[in-house]
Structures are given as C-alpha cells and as structure tokens.
Amino acid sequence: MGARLNSFTAPGPMTSSSSSPFWILLRAAAGLALAGGWIGAADLQRSWPGWRGPLDSGVAPFADPPIQWSETNHVRWRIPLPGRGHSSPITAGDRLYVMSASPTGEAQTPVFDQAPGVHDSVPVTHRHQYAVTAIHRSDGRILWNRVVAEEWPHEGGHTTGSPVSGSPVTDGTRLFALFGSRGLFCLDTSGAILWKTNFGRMQTLHAHGEGSSPVLAGDTLYVNWDHEGDSFLYALNPQDGTPRWKVPRDEKTSWSTPLLVHRGDQRQLVVSATRRVRGYDPGSGRLIWECAGLTDNVVSSPVQWQDLVIAGNSYYQQAMMAVRWTTATGDVTGGTNEVWQIRRMTPYVSSPLVYGDTLYFLRHNQNVLSRLDPATGRPRGEPLRLDAIGDMIFSSPVAAAGRLYVTGRDGITVVVSLDPGNAILSVNRLEDSFSATPALADSDLYLRGERFLYCLSGR
Question: CA–CA separation, 20 vs 229, rounded Å?
Fold first, then answer.
C-alpha cells in the first residue's frame, strides 16, 4: 500500500542511518512505536512483521528480492513444513515464522459443517494440531515447532481452502497467532506461550474457514471477528491479552484484515465488510463513519493512499470505493466523502496495493492487472493480462525495488516493472502451488506453498 509513506516510492534498495530524519519519518508513518519491544527502526529494513509487511501495505521499501528464479536457480533453501495452511510467513531479524495445521490420530467418520451456504466442501477425517514454527532465515533450520491447540476443525474443509489462513504478527519479541475458533495465542521467541484468549466459536458463511489476521499497532492488538453469529471488533493489550474495548458489528462473515490508517496526527481503524466499510477510533472503538457499496464475501482488505482509504471486493457483484476518511463522519454513502467508485475489474481474494501514485489490483481471482489513479479511480492505461499465470490467484501482490510480484496457484510468479511502461520482467515457475501472500525482506523472497516453504535470494 505504500500509503503510510503516502507518495513515497522506492526505486530500489536504500540504506539510511536509524537516527536519520528519514528513518524517524518512516517509523512514525508506519506506526511502529517503540512500545513493549516493538521492532526498532534499524530492524525495519530486514522485517516483514505481518501479513502485508512493515507498512501494512504489501510494499517492502528497502528490500531487493530476486527477479528470476527456478527450482535450481536463486533457491537459498527449500524445506517441507510441519503442516498445511495458506497463512503467510512473516520475518523479524534472523527469524521467520509460519502457522500451520496437521491431521493427527486415527481417521474418523467424515464431517461437514452445517454453516449457511456450504458448498465445494471436502471431508474432514482427523483432529488437527495447530502450530507455530520458527525458522532460521539464513539456512531454513527449524528452531522450534510449538503445537498450541489440538481440535477437530468444526468449520469443515474446502476444495481450495486451508485450515489456517490468517497470518501472525510480531513486535520482534512477541508473536501473536490467531487460530480462529482455537483462540489467539501470544508466544515469545523461544516458543513459550505467554497468554491465550478465546473469542468463542466462529461460524463462517459457506464453511470456508477463518481468514482475518490480527493487527498490531503501537500498544494495541486489533482483531476483526465477523461471522454468522454475533460479530465484534476487539482491541486487546498485547502484554497480557486483556481487552481494551469491544464493539458489536452489524455484519455477516468477512475475511478481511483491519487497517490502521494515518495522516498527520489522525489515526483510524478501518474494516471492510459486506454491509459497510467502517472507520473507528482506535483508542475507544467509537464508530466515526461508514459507507455502503460492497457485496457479499468480503475477503480483500483495504489500502490507504494519502487521505483516502480504498476498499473493494468481487463476488455476486464487483465494487470498489475510495473514502476520504480524514473528513468523513456518519453515513457517507453517496456523499462528498465517497470520492469515487467503480463497478468492474475488482478483486475478490487478493488485496490491492498502492505503489507511488498508482493503485494496482487483480480482477476477481484472475490474471488481469488493473492500474488506477488512486485519487480519481481513472485507469492508467489498459488492464494488463498476465498470460503466463493460470486463471486462479489467491495471494496478494507485493512490491519492492520498483517491481510488482504476482504469484498464482499454479506455481508461477510474474514480475512486473513499476515504471510507466509496466513491462513484464520475468516469468518464474516452481513445482508447488501457492495461495499464501509472499514475504519480502533484504534480498529474499519467501513463498509458502502447499508442500514447501521457499527462500529465494537475490544474493
């Protein structure tokens, strides 16, 4: 999203003193306050501490990952993982963390969850162990694997789904892993469980599983709990998991992750969902504004560009809107604070990304890349068809060093130049299937597949 730096665009890898004005600006813009061991500015360059990276944006402003790779080229290491999941890897310093779930015990009679609208289900025949794994970034050594829960996956299975789809977040000394109905776990860097809290049993639409990721900002941890039961937005103390506030939400199931937006001294927590996109006061949970216009099954998460927050989805219908959140109050649907909207080419599972002055996103789950002016919603050229990728993309695009990386479930990643020409720089194939969003740090690109975790290095 590049939005926490607003118009900042990194043309390539950069270095800077951790005490320079630029680093101070970067820390403030990213909201990475030094609270309770939060990642310091000097480590930000090396970190991808949550699902969408150091700026909650999909952009790694100082990384320089490889442009080309294969199974025999630029692979620093490749390791099998203890279990499955579409959860994205995250990094902090020399550690990489992933979440997964593994079948265990004797097979039992297959069970299908009876949640509303169940379809494309697959039988669940085993209890599962839910685990967090720590891996050394340099060589792929597994440092520890902590099983935090063992349960029957009540939500059932899905043909393209995953038992663990939300991603962890870290402040460098603590790791926060949300396993949905199993609970939210806080671990230290040795794998010890410091605390756990439980939000109850989530009942998702279509039995598609649970996918929203927790958000850590300063001294507060935020969790979106939208499902077919009573929905809530939670704010927790990351030190011990005690609640700071809890507000009810008039929402059905969504899988989107909240976004903390910044502009000067203003901050809001924005959540994208079916009935409304809403902006909250992050300190109290007070609802500030709301805007209707999206449709069912909101998976894609919002992004920020300057004083706009942009949210979209695509299921029964296609929709995307931009709201000027800095001046929005009350219901802004159709008002002057709803700056623009479009009704075609919008994303479904993957989330959009802003790099410099351009908004990028994929059509539904397809290999069509749109480029818009984020201020107006007007196209910047015709959509680009990334023909090398098959027509099924779940992971969200990521960007670094003037390049966009788009990874499909067929194992192919297309690298696109982010200069005005948007030339395709490379087409790269690995022998795995990828649904998780990649992580970028230093010269490395981490891809979590169905069978392996890859570290692809530009060194």
Answer: 49
Per residue in 390-414, pLDDT tens? Answer: 879 999 999 999 999 999 999 999 9
DSSP assignments along 47-60, one per residue: -B-STTTTTTSSB-
Q: Provide the domain count of the chain.
A: 1
Segments of 93-252 assigned E as strands: 95-104, 121-122, 127-136, 142-151, 157-158, 169-170, 174-178, 184-188, 193-197, 215-217, 220-225, 231-236, 243-249
Q: What share of the chain is helix, strand, coil (3-state, %, to 5)?
A: 5, 40, 55
Distance CA 142, CA 39 (A): 22
CATH number where 31 lies: 2.130.10.10
Task: Domain of residue 142: give its range.
Answer: 3-457
Residue 153 DSSP SS3: coil
Q: What is the pLDDT of residues 94-146, one digit of tens each?
A: 999 999 999 898 888 765 555 556 677 777 778 899 999 999 999 999 999 99
> How far is Cα 438 from Cα 169, in angstroms, rounded to an integer?
14
Structural tokens at position 49: 């501490």
Distance in angstroms (rounded) separating the CA atoms of residues 428 and 451: 18
Which ranges in 17-165 belong to alpha helices (H)? 21-30, 41-44
CB atoms within 10 A of CB 382: 8
Token pair for residue 162? 């995953």
Interstrand relation of 287-291 and 330-331 (parallel, antiparallel or unpaired): parallel
Q: What are phi and psi of 299, to 5 degrees?
A: -110, -45
